[in-house]
Design goal:
The complex is a heterodimer of chains A (705) and B (210). Chain A is mainly beta and 705 residues long. Chain A is 5% helix and 59% strand. In chain B, helix 4 packs antiparallel against helix 5 and helix 5 runs antiparallel to helix 6. Chain B has ten helices and no strands. Chain B has two domains: 79 residues, no CATH class; 105 residues, Alpha Horseshoe (Serine Threonine Protein Phosphatase 5, Tetratricopeptide repeat), CATH 1.25.40. The chains are: A mainly beta (705), B mainly alpha (210). Chains A and B meet through helix 1, strand 3 and strand 36 of A and helix 1, helix 3, helix 5 and helix 7 of B.
Chain lengths: 705, 210
């Protein structure tokens, strides 16, 4: 009996004792950071625990023998550890490896600003652009508040870091847009052709851009159009400048957008004082359509077509004799066709093809002379991308661009045909999550100047801490001289620029800080050798260097979003008709932009204000022997806008009001002198103030119901 | 007799020592933890607990459902937007895994819709335009698959309640959805003691608010 009892007791104690092993420990990341909330458990059992705020855990398990301990945490690779459970307490030290994701991988930012609704690193989204005071929902207007861009209000286009507008190129889904701006009239800047709402992202590059693009000495603007819209709906816009209507129809796997618009600035210009003497206030009719189709599971076909007719007329001074007046009247017809097809092939390959065509016809009447300009552009491109490693990719592509330009002046006419064949290759190689290198080259052959170039591109980016990174960019950029010089001679080389950019970016908790230093070396620029005859060669050169600073904050002040951007620019050129190396007329040494937005919840209103300052720009004064040594007075512009959101009879409505140059500060862009140099006329903005009011209503299923 | 006594006593101890992976016991324990969780760490514990139950019972969809449901609370309590995003995505991961185990389950589609709407609410300006259609679509499908299920109506009503009025939201627009949800809650009987029953209290509370 005693034997049995003790045996029973032994059995009892072993049965209970064998059931528990205590497992405890700590879970850390590779940088010794504590991991909170990780799930630590025995595979196949319920037994386990979560790590606490110190990264430590403790639990008991009744499993025994050889088991697998699993540690799981969001954002990290799952880890397993073989353990033996025999009753002895286990104390473990576990290190987790980070998974690569958008937030912890480095991004190549040197010279590049991302804006849009998709990428985390984006600086502005489409609503930001629409609500930036002074921009009137024009993408280019909003980009001008980013560092590196100069406010040259009297000319169309982007003036970036000491480069003129012809050195900047716009791309739509990777395809070249030959005329991104509406018709060019003397001293009047025109809007960009596209609405900010068409795009899901834009990449504004102020230098060292990708090998996929070429023929732009200074900068590129890459616009990425939206994919399939969510719903079928209609929008109408009733504005002080005209009427606009869009219908978006969503089918199962495709969509069709059609837009028509009529603009006439005559009514508003009769109310608002104008500096310009209009003989025909801008009037235009525009229609465009967009078709998108999902091809298979991972493909997307996009076709965009735009047709526009515009009529504008001004009385302006004769450039050579400001005492004489000239009548400029322009009738333009613009057609744009842009189609792209993207298709993933298997898991790691992607094909992008595109075909774009544009036709721009300008009928210019400079009483009594007639000028007819016809520009045709054709762009065909194919790129194949291969994804390798966890994050890297390599792409190769070929591209054909053909620009035909015909100009006739009364009876005389001349034309040029400028076909360019290019191929490029580039890799984005991630050495680690934190160190990435982009290396590429672009080969271009321009038939019109019988030249070929090979341009290297190199960028590096290193993530120094959780929220900050450093990036370096280098590249060589070539550009065929502008059309107007090619009509009379083709004996040129490519103009070129070499960029060196270094940048630091900090982005965390809705605050972004960015500082960038750059040096651009321009060479082979066109320089005038003689006046009669008009002869140019490539002996021009120049440089541009400076520092850009940008700070954006959507967190510090409640319901407030603001950004400050400052550019310091030192640039000189000896090109075209310059007698020596001087600061060009489109460059201002200091530019400051302060953009502010405030959301008033109680009345569903967004209030925006923008202040722009630029130091005086050089202008040509024939009385001063020192070429371009005079400076205009400093430029100040204060604009405000207001967006009021309301649901009227169940339809989402925005009432938008914007006033530019509220204080009517008379800014001067430059001067025109009479031939004797005694009188001069200031080049002013087309109006001292401008006002815009619009009501935008969306019909169709209320999106958020 | 002695041997018989010994054998039966040993067997008794053996049986009581074996009962470990009882699925139902585990689920009930988890549901109890879920009810009592009142801070961030406790909420994380609930999610991780249900994840473990799911790991140990790979053919069951309910543990994954509750892991997804509990992720809502963790995401909500997190302060940093990135962490909120992470936990809502984690929850969606559980729910999508469960959907592979049980197709066309109204509760799962409703939960997927709920997690997606919470994810959208972290950055509505950027996310709402492209993701709301899909999220509401999931709720509509959940309603159709089980017309007696109050939860898709409640989730839809709650989301409408917190949407700004000029976007078609607000208490007034939410009322018909919440009324319908409450009527269904009052008539609802779960299939078994593990199926979801949550939401009635909150529904009543929203209906009381202006």
């Amino acid at each position: 009996m005693k034997h049995c009892f003790s045996l029973l007791l032994l059995l009892f104690t072993t049965l209970t004792l064998r059931s528990q092993t205590n497992i405890s420990g700590i879970v850390l990341g590779e940088n010794s950071d504590t991991i909170v909330g990780a799930n630590v458990f025995i595979r196949g059992a319920f037994d386990g625990a979560s790590t606490n705020k110190f990264g430590s855990f403790s639990f008991t398990t009744i499993e025994k023998g050889n088991q697998t301990l699993v540690v799981r945490m969001i954002g990290y690779e799952e880890t397993e550890k073989s353990i033996i459970l025999d009753g002895k307490t286990l104390s473990l030290h576990i290190i987790l490896k980070e998974k690569s994701n958008e937030l912890n991988t480095v991004v190549i930012t040197a010279g590049n600003f991302e804006t849009g609704d998709v990428k985390k690193i984006a600086v502005l989204n489409s609503i930001d652009i629409a609500t930036t005071a002074g921009a009137t929902a024009d993408i280019f207007g909003a980009l001008k508040t980013l560092p590196g861009s100069q406010p040259a209000g009297e000319e169309s286009g982007l003036f970036v870091r000491g480069g003129d507008a012809s050195e900047s190129r716009t791309f739509f889904d990777g395809m070249l847009v030959n005329n991104a701006f509406t018709s060019d009239l003397p001293d009047i800047a025109q809007r960009g052709r596209f609405s900010a709402f068409m795009f899901k992202g834009t990449s504004f590059s102020t230098g060292a851009y990708s090998a996929q693009y070429g023929q732009a000495l200074s900068s590129t603007m890459a616009l990425e159009s939206k994919d399939l819209p969510e719903k079928t709906k209609s929008d109408i816009g009733i504005m002080t400048v005209g009427l606009d209507a869009t219908h978006t129809h969503r089918f199962e796997n495709s969509s069709l957008d059609v837009n028509v618009g009529y603009y006439n600035l005559s009514p508003i210009f009769s109310i608002i004082k104008q500096n310009t003497s209009w003989t025909k206030e801008p009037e235009s009719v525009n229609t465009n359509a967009s078709y998108r189709l999902k091809t298979g599971k991972t493909g997307m076909l996009k076709i965009y077509a735009n047709y526009e007719k515009t009529h504008i007329g001004v009385i302006s001074e004769n450039f050579n004799d400001i005492t004489q007046q000239v009548n400029y009247d322009i009738k333009s017809t613009n057609t744009l066709f842009n189609s792209t097809w993207q298709q993933y092939l298997g898991d790691s390959w992607k094909l992008n093809t595109g075909l774009a065509y544009s036709n721009d016809e300008n009928n210019i009447n400079i009483n009594p002379d007639k000028v007819l300009q016809t520009e045709k552009a054709l762009n065909a491109k194919a790129t194949i991308t291969h994804y390798y490693g966890k994050l890297s990719d390599i792409k190769a592509g070929i591209e054909y661009i053909d620009l035909k330009n015909k100009e006739s002046y009364n009876e005389l006419s001349h034309q040029i045909d400028n076909p360019i064949l290019a191929s490029f290759m580039e890799t984005n190689y991630f050495i680690t999550n934190k160190l990435a290198i982009r290396a590429g080259a672009r080969l271009e052959s321009a038939d019109i100047i019988q030249s070929t170039n090979l341009a290297p591109r190199l960028s590096l980016a290193y993530k120094i801490a959780d929220a900050s990174q450093v990036s370096f960019g280098y590249g060589r950029f070539y550009q065929v001289p502008e059309d107007k010089y090619l009509f009379d001679s083709k004996d040129y080389n490519f103009q070129n620029a070499t960029h060196y950019i270094l940048n630091y970016q900090y982005q965390k908790d809705n605050r972004t800080f960015r500082i960038e230093a750059y040096y651009k070396d321009y060479d082979q620029l066109l320089k005038q050798q003689s006046l009669e005859p008009d002869l140019f060669d490539n002996s021009g050169y120049g440089y541009a260097k400076g520092i850009d600073v940008f700070y954006r904050d959507t967190k510090t002040f409640k319901n407030t979003d603001f950004w400050i951007s400052y550019s310091l620019l030192d640039t000189k050129r000896d090109y075209l008709n310059y007698p020596k190396e001087v600061q060009p007329s489109f460059a201002a040494s200091n530019v400051l932009n302060i953009v502010y937005k405030y959301w008033i919840n109680a009345v569903n209103t967004s209030l925006g204000a923008t202040y722009t300052y630029a130091s005086g720009r050089p202008y040509f004064n024939p009385n001063n022997p020192d070429f371009l040594a005079d400076r205009t007075k400093d430029y100040h512009n204060f604009s405000m806008n207001l967006s009021y959101l309301k649901s009227i009879a169940g339809h989402f409505t925005i009432i938008y009001l914007s006033v530019e140059n509220i204080f009517g500060i008379s800014n001067v862009y430059g001067y025109r002198y009479s031939p004797d140099g005694n009188t001069r006329k200031a080049i002013l903005p087309s109006a001292p103030r401008s006002l815009f009011l619009g009501i935008f209503i969306t019909f169709g299923d209320d999106q958020y119901k | 007799m002695k041997v018989l006594l010994m054998i039966s006593t040993i067997s008794l101890f053996s049986f009581s020592a074996i009962a470990v992976s009882d699925y139902e016991k585990g689920m009930l324990k988890g549901l109890e933890m879920l009810k009592n969780a009142n801070d961030l760490q406790a909420s994380i514990d609930v999610v991780n607990y249900f994840e473990r139950v799911a790991e140990a019972n790979k053919t069951e969809w309910l543990p994954l459902y509750y892991a997804g449901y509990a992720s809502l609370s963790v995401g909500f309590q997190q302060e940093k937007v990135e962490m909120k995003d992470d936990w809502y995505q984690k929850g969606l991961g559980f729910v999508k895994k469960a959907e592979l185990l049980k197709e066309n389950e109204s509760e799962l589609l409703a939960m997927e819709g709920y997690l997606t709407l919470m994810y959208i609410s972290n950055d509505p300006m950027k996310r709402a335009p492209s993701q709301t259609r899909n999220a509401i679509g999931l709720l509509e499908k959940a309603k159709a698959l089980n017309p007696n299920n109050p939860r898709p109506w409640f989730i839809h009503g709650q989301n409408t309640f917190y949407t700004p009025e000029f976007y078609g939201g607000g208490a007034k627009n939410a009322k018909p959805l919440l009324d319908k949800a409450l009527a269904l809650y009052n008539a609802f009987t779960p299939e078994n003691n593990l199926m979801p029953v949550w939401g009635k209290e909150r529904c009543e509370m929203l209906l009381k608010e202006k």
